[in-house]
Amino acid sequence: MTDPLSDQQHQLHQLHQLSGPPGTAPPAPRTTYVTTTIPYVNARPHLGFALELVQADVLARHRRHRGDRVRFLTGTDDNSLKNVLAAEAAGVPVQDLVDRNAEAFAALRGPLALSFDDFIRTSRDPRHRVGVERLWRRCADSGDLYRRHYEGLYCVGCEQFFTPAELVEGRCAEHGTEPRPVAEENWFFRLSRYADRLHDLISSGRLRVEPAVRRNEVLALIESGLHDFSVSRSHTRARGWGIPVPGDPDQVVYVWWDALGNYVTSLGYGTGGPAYDQWWSGATRRIHLVGKGVVRFHAVYWPAMLLSAGLPLPTDVLVHDYLTVDGRKISKSAGTTVDPAELVAGFGTDAVRWWLLRDVPRVGDADFTRERLVTRANADFAGGLGNLVNRVVTMAHRFRDGRVPVSRASRASRVSPVSRTPAEGTERLVAACREVPARVDDALADFDFRRAVDAVWRVVTEADRCVDGTRPWELAKAERAGDPAAGERLDEVLAALVTACRTLADQLGPFVPESAARVAAQCTPAADGRLPAARPLFPRVDEPLPSTV
What we know:
This protein has 20 helices and 16 strands. By secondary structure, it is an alpha/beta fold. Residues 1-22 and 414-419 have low confidence and may be disordered.
């Protein structure tokens, strides 16, 4: 018998979806809001930010796949002094430089196969300024804004004041530059008022900061004493670029106050409409993905601002480390950049996505080279996944005329799915397929992309082990010699292997959507009930591919 729709795969999906006793209504869909930081647009995008985009895209796709309602936001921070200085250096108007580079960030949607639902630009989007102004007034109404004279050391790269104790040999640890002395009268926010509440929220897990090493850094920062911080810049020093402080046109809203607000201004916080209630105040999870260099802004400043304004806090601040090239952080300012669009043009979308997910650890920086990317793509796609699918489909055609068999156990499972016993030699593979959804869920809940893809890859490993252990070609030979039991076992093995390939297509979708679609197409029967003829899905990558690929 054959089953083009694969009962085994259908049952695995049904079992995974069960969440309560028989007769109970399914739970209401969760509402998940996923955001990236919004980068400065003083230069074109680099691979370091592509890491954050891909991680956020995986979380968004994964939660959609699990039935959540999801909104995925990214965008650009246009109102930075860094952008102004870059425009001056290039001899072009600020808006022209900002527009050109912001477009390069938005254009990453295609090359990186991103699924974002919204892209905000802080200098152009009509939702943004009114939302920033409303947030300012709410904090002012709480008595948390005041004006005073200030002198300090300012790093333009970080857009942040530093004390001498926070510098390394007088230089910014992030950029290696000497901060500029600045003296002016600015507006300040009473951050110190919120130290105890922030510490309680983070230490209790109500505001979740992951990984633990970053959470501990934030708690140590709070315990060392929080100081009020400047939230405006003089109109003169900002070169007139940015959002004027409400009621004080001689001051411009500090770029971090401006930028952090995008998480709610993009939802119509200042303009009205249902999006804010649905995706912020009413969301099940409000998830910020951020780099380790901006943790204090997202885990301290931003929550304090929200507390002051009486708004809900994010539920999760998930922090990634850096990519490096020859041990140096990838940075537009430092000139150590790798253009993700050019990388994709040379090696393909999923080769880039896969390296970012498979080789970048949860904690610790990862050093990028093209050689590592090529090695990983060839080992996992051409030699791993592609080879497995090709072998399985080839055997289905050679031994069963391209039709997917149904084993006795699978037929019995139609009556009692949970009582079926895997065929001899397929037990570990069947278990891996059954367990992979929960393993992926657990890993991504821990913000561990490497562990998530390892969980999926266990199916590849077990499928290869199943082929080597059961030796379907020998079963086919025995069947031809008149052994019906060998034929039954061959059906069971082939059914388990095709189910494994379909499981891989299903579970790889959030990580490498193009590759997952290729596997799914190869394992989907045509109208005549036969699988498509086997073909190489993933050619080896030895040299950069043409830009048209």
